[in-house]
């Protein structure tokens, strides 16, 4: 038996209706759409981490290596243990909370913040092992489960449109149309987007990868030979990589020496809460996109991807980065046909490869890779057909879940809105029999979370 056949048999590729070629292509697609994290995560965290005798540029290089190792490790566990096409890396939003809120605003030492991430990961491992995480996720009301995919789609789309310069912030209207006729990035992005959508509509294999590649090439050509200036942002800049991560790896240990018990507990709780429901929403949403969910809207054997996520968070914190989580960009690989852990294994291998050569993320401009997010975001809108739109007790929690995600830039907030509203609406409609005690407990937990997160409780303790 050859290597390809052995790999196919190990992951059950044919049993899942896929092929080795499709899985590899799906892994490449996922990697290209999430590779930006290799650049973005270090940029966010470097502002919060200072090490005596080491420049910020060197710290950012170390963080790039740590980001790659953490992502590769977590995604490898997802591949070989969970056999799911989900990729992992330090999460956006969580890294901003780590750097801007915990270290910046609250003044908590970055080593202590890393200690909180490690504790959170260990808690996840224990709760996953005893089945508690799976139980909570299965408590998700049905309309929320079926709305998560669409909400994530809108969330992906707004991230992509913003990176492409099509949607911009506006002080009067919050969001507005960017200068699409004068911004070279927006012009090339729109051309690349419609090219990719056209390929996708024609069922061209690898359409998203082709779209990203062609868009990147167009940006390079018009910069090198056309009228566009080199500083217009159409070509990604090169990055340097250092392999010495010893100042970061293990730094969390010293963080336990600076712990104030109550503040530390609140920080752990906040990391825990956001990561828990971001991961849950991502797994359910991407699972819906891949038709992995059962008739109850549950992801079978969800404990395995949850354990991979918990291990990734723990390892990431030990190495020196913020919380590792399952990426919504995994939907791009799933839409390309990825159905098994071979897709995730491909992503992990590509992350490892980016340590040896110049990181692939540096060769793909952000606007080009984010075209995939818009394409998949549009495609994921079709998930709304699973919602019972003729039942207001489903429409309200589902609608809130879908709307709040993109408008608050948070998967967890969207899920919170849906779950908190479900028992209230069911009770008001006289359908008390549909509400379980666990639904009220979850709703109350979200109220506590919002008080901690937005009520200044953390700041008052520092």
From TrEMBL:
Ranges in a coiled coil: none
Keyword Transmembrane helix: yes
TM region positions: 24-49, 61-82, 89-107, 113-132, 144-168, 174-201, 208-229, 249-274, 342-361, 367-385, 397-425, 437-460
UniProt-annotated location(s): Cell membrane
GO molecular function: purine nucleobase transmembrane transporter activity
UniProt keyword Transport present: yes
Keywords assigned: Cell membrane, Membrane, Transmembrane, Transmembrane helix, Transport
Topology class, membrane: Multi-pass membrane protein
GO-annotated cellular components: plasma membrane
Database matches in Pfam families: Xan_ur_permease
Family, as annotated: Belongs to the nucleobase:cation symporter-2 (NCS2) (TC 2.A.40) family. Azg-like subfamily.
PANTHER family, A to Z: XANTHINE/URACIL PERMEASE C887.17-RELATED, XANTHINE_URACIL PERMEASE C887.17-RELATED
Protein name in UniProt: NCS2 family permease
Source species: Halobellus limi
């Amino acid at each position: 038996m050859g290597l390809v056949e052995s790999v196919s048999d190990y992951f059950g590729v044919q049993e899942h209706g896929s092929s080795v070629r499709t899985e590899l292509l799906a892994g490449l697609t996922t990697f290209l759409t999430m590779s930006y994290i290799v650049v973005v995560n270090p940029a966010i965290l470097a502002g919060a981490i200072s090490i005596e005798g080491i420049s910020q540029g060197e710290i950012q290089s170390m963080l790039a290596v740590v980001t790659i190792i953490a992502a590769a490790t977590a995604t490898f566990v997802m591949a070989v243990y969970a056999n799911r096409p989900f990729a992992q890396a330090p999460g956006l939003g969580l890294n901003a909370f780590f750097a801007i809120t915990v270290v910046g605003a609250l003044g908590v030492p970055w080593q202590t913040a890393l200690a909180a991430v490690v504790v959170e990961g260990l808690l996840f491992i224990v709760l996953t092992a005893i089945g508690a995480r799976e139980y909570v996720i299965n408590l998700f009301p049905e309309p929320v489960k079926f709305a998560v995919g669409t909400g994530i789609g809108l969330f992906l789309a707004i991230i992509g449109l913003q990176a492409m310069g099509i949607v911009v912030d506006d002080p009067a209207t919050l969001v507005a149309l960017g200068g699409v006729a004068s911004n070279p990035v927006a012009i090339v992005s729109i051309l690349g987007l419609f090219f990719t959508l056209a390929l996708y509509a024609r069922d061209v294999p690898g359409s998203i990868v082709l779209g990203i590649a062609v868009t990147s090439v167009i940006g390079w050509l018009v910069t090198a030979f056309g009228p566009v200036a080199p500083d217009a942002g159409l070509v990604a800049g090169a990055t340097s990589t250092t392999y010495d991560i010893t100042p970061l790896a293990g730094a969390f240990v010293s963080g336990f020496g600076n712990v104030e018990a109550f503040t530390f507990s609140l920080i752990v709780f906040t990391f825990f809460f956001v990561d828990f429901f971001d991961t849950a929403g991502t797994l359910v949403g991407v699972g819906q996109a891949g038709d992995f969910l059962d008739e109850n809207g549950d992801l079978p054997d969800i404990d395995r991807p949850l354990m991979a996520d918990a291990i990734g968070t723990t390892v990431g914190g030990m190495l020196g980065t913020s919380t590792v989580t399952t990426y919504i960009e995994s939907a791009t690989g799933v839409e390309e046909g990825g159905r098994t852990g071979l897709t995730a294994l491909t992503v992990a291998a590509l992350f490892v490869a980016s340590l040896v050569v110049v990181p692939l993320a540096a060769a793909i401009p952000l606007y080009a890779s984010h075209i995939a997010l818009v394409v998949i975001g549009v495609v994921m809108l079709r998930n709304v057909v699973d919602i019972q739109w003729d039942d207001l007790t489903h429409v309200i929690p589902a609608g809130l879940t879908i709307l709040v995600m993109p408008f608050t830039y948070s998967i967890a907030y969207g899920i919170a809105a849906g779950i908190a509203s479900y028992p209230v609406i069911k009770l008001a409609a006289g359908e008390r029999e549909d509400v379980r005690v666990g639904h009220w407990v979850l709703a109350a937990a979200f109220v506590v979370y919002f008080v901690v997160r937005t009520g200044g409780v953390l700041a008052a303790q520092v």
